[in-house]
Queue: 2 jobs
Job 1
Amino acid sequence: MEGKTTYWQENLRLIFICLAIWFVVSFGLGLLLVEPLNAIRLGGYKLGFWFAQQGSIYTFVGLIFWYTAKMNALDKKYDVEES
Amino acid sequence: MDELKLYTYIAVFGSFAVYFGIAWWARAGSTSEFYVAGGGVTPMQNGMAIGADWMSAASFISMAGLIAFLGYGGSVFLMGWTGGYVLLAMLLAPYMRKHGKFTVPEFISDRYYSKTARIVAVICLIIASLTYIIGQMKGVGVAFSRFLEVEYDNGLYIGMFVVWVYAVLGGMKGITYTQIAQYCVLIFAYTIPAIFISLQLTGNPIPQLGLGSTLADGSGVYLLDKLDTVVTELGFKEYTTDNMGGTLNMFAYTMSLMIGTAGLPHVIMRFFTVPSVKAARQSAGYALVFIALLYTVAPAVGAMARFNLMNTIEPAAGQNLEYAERPQWFKDWEKTGLLKFEDKNGDGKVQYTADKATNEMVKVDRDIMVLANPAIANLPNWVIALVAAGGLAAALSTAAGLLLAISSSISHDLMKGVLTPDLSEKNELLAGRIVMTISIIVAGYLGLNPPGFAAGTVALAFGLAASSIFPALMMGIFAKKMSGTAAVWGMCSGIGVTMLYVFQHKGIMFIPGTSFLGDMGPNWFLGISPNAFGAVGALVNFGVAFAVLKVTGPAPAHIQQMVDNFRTPHGGVTAAHDH
């Protein structure tokens, strides 16, 4: 049982990191901090606007693949892979 | 027959022929194939199918139009409808796949060892899915009547028949493989016009980059800056900063859409079709890639459509369009009543402003933006034909997924699970098909006679999923001690609060005149609009469930053991669709 608890704890830690990033790019940079960020430009985009309509979505995609890769490694580490 | 009509017939009926072919090839022989496509769908295939399932007539037709008129405020849909997949991939899908059952209510009934919980879940699922289907059926009818000049009713019958053939014959298996084809059709239909328009306006073929580029007219001005100037001069709010109802409202709205997305049963169900936990995580990633392809193009389509519209009406400040010289698409949409002009000052020119007293474009329906876009930009006829086929693919694929969610919850959860547990597999399969046929007829009837509240109910579907299903599933996985009693209390109070709030502002059962508080800003709790209230409902659900848990005590040991089991990919009943 010892090993299982740690696997779950590591998973929780990973989820926490991912959801923190998820929150920061969308609710943080895209909504709460949008006004100060809009002073910075990314080509024709105001940065806050870009995060809200483009950047957050790209980050979401990256996050899921990163989490998937990390979890595959974790499954291996704790030897809980599916047969 | 003119060229456009010929192309449209080829695109629409050609795509239907492909769907039928796939349906015949992938017909279902067992309940496992009917409900979860035999559990053998690869993550990439499942990702595409989820994409088609998810992207409905609303995503395809309405979303870019909403963004075009809401500007920055439209971001809530972009973030809300994609961010939910992060939650699905990390909080729900892998564990529910590990548990290895057919439906969402079945998971809830196992985890909360309660038939009450299962019935509550079935009710939420049916309400959420049915309200959603009405919108799809209307989309099918509109697409047919606009592009093929078939009567709305006949268009709807054709749509019903097509869905019936491949959904009833193939079940989840047929639907999955058809959805893959439908995804391809709809993504091409969406991006090709966008590429053309981006190229015309900015010289950059990639719409996501075009939106951030300078205009191709040699002025060196950025497209978004120009759009901001044009709309503010006419008294509209600045495009890139117009925040719909304030920051808190946008915050709550985005959160509601995110957790609502993660809690919609027809999406979750798709994760039961893959062979393993690993594949469930992966398919969430692929799904979001395929969805992001459309969702990152949508803001470009919206902004460019708005730009083109403004530019057609007023090419340079003070030089307004002569009404007599209006382009063909203007006349076409005037015929549908979705675009209306009224020459208030009698100068024969079109004035489009934010001021109601002088604005002469008295009606510009948001939904026409995507459909009219290729014509506004003078694109070739085959592109317009493609858009028709794409709109139909989006509506049909979502309708099929929803029908399966409804029929499985009735035949598997209510009949097999609660009423007649000794139903044989063969009879259950037959029951599933009969229920699906009935659902199609009900959905068609509602599409023909859309209840007055149809527009408000899609928001209700998200509100319900966000305030009831998502919290119940999440606590079931992450709070090991969560008990059945506490979860049922949580679900009921979450839905209760959300429905009460929606009804108090929009009328009881959406009947006009029965609302006891007006539907406007000052009456909203903390300025949160009814559509955004699902997030608050979810908080209530969590709060009540934990409070009741404290009083009534934790779940029994064997349930906690089961939770431990589905938290790890290996061991227990792996990859089992064994019933």
Note: Confidence is low (pLDDT under 50) at residues 573-579 of chain B.
Job 2
Amino acid sequence: MGAPYQTWQCRTCGFIYDEAEGAPAEGLAPGTRWVDIPADWVCPLCGTPKADFEMVEL
Amino acid sequence: MIPQEIAATIVDPTAFGGNGKRVDEAFTWLRREMPLEVGQPEGFDPFWVVTRHADILEVERQNELFHNGDRATIVTPIELDQKVRMVMGGSPHLVRALVQMDNPDHAAYRRLTYGAFLPQNLKRLEARVRDIARSFIDHMASLGGTCDFARDVAFLYPLHVIMELLGVPESDEPRMLKLTQELFGSADAELSRTGSRPEDAASALANLQGTVGEFMVYFNEITEDRRARPREDLASVIANGRVFDAPLGVLEAMSYYIIVASAGHDTTSSTTAGALWALAENHDQFRRVKENPVLIPALVEESIRWVTPVKHFMRTATADAELAGRRIAKGDWLMLSYQSGNRDENAFDRPFRFDVERSPNKHVAFGYGAHICLGQHLARMEMRILWEELLPRLQDVVLDGEPVNMDSAFVCGPKRVPIRYRMQ
């Protein structure tokens, strides 16, 4: 069994990326790990770089 | 240079009023013929008109290269701009809220209330917001099958939600609504402070100062109260907040209250009213979303794109730059037309069709980049809940007269949406 899924949040707009749900509209299938998302990916709502997200526990 | 007739149209509040078609035609022409060009309507300084979705994102994501606060953030005639600067000690702004700020102030002031508007924190309010939505829907059901959906429901529901969050008593909500409509409807004869469209810059400034002044007097009392007796509300956060290790400046604190107490409901109200207008005109879309509630989030996004309640903001270049192959000079003023970006044929398939299944729907109605709307998650939640509660009860709806948008080139939405309907 893999590590529990994590959630990451944009520090500009609050967009939440949940690894379990992925972001299908952005081409990220459910189960896509944060580490597997390209470094140049940006927040789909506001364009903030991936590096400016933080892990959050919801 | 943009032809005078087109340039005059995109700053004319009445072109956005009525059914809004006149301004849509002007922006459609611009996107096709001059998607990024300088215009200079009579009485205005020249400015670039950014009409394409992609170019708006490009400007918005570079918030150090394109500042908000260096010049007026709303397209403003020269004479009014001069008068504002005269009364504000050289500043082009009557208020200094997040939309007039750049970094480092913008980030610091935004951080103050950022947490309150995060989705995980808004979730705690969901049950209460649902209760409020139900009470307005019950009210609508009691009206006997006809109402002005804008006045009777859409203006009141988001107003009540944000005033509870802010900590304004219910008895003061009519006053907050009136002041908000005066602020954004200052060019609309029915909504302006004096009941007529301002004739000149002096009367326009007097109206705005009167409204802003009344807001400030009100929130000054709230500040004193919350400093003495802090509560669990946003007003207490603003009144007792600290930025750069000091309390908020007076103008900044008052402006913070004003933006929450005005933009915090008016834009959601406009979008809600505009959505029902669109559903009443597009019965197939009404049926589709009523029969498939899973489409409600998409209905919300499409409504936001469709109405685009904030029509534009201005930016000022802080250095020479290139945008879409054009040279922008330091100090140039740029109009980001969200109205146009959200009808851009290169970004949206059949953009003039209201489509509750539109996907993707990457509209720019909330802006983009560091200045993206702070309240976007609250707005989405309020609208989702309203439709979740209203659509199962709403059996049928048609227009019962001509809906009308307010006259405003800045923040604009329907002021009347007369409907006939059947409800369970």
Note: The radius of gyration of chain B is 21 Å.
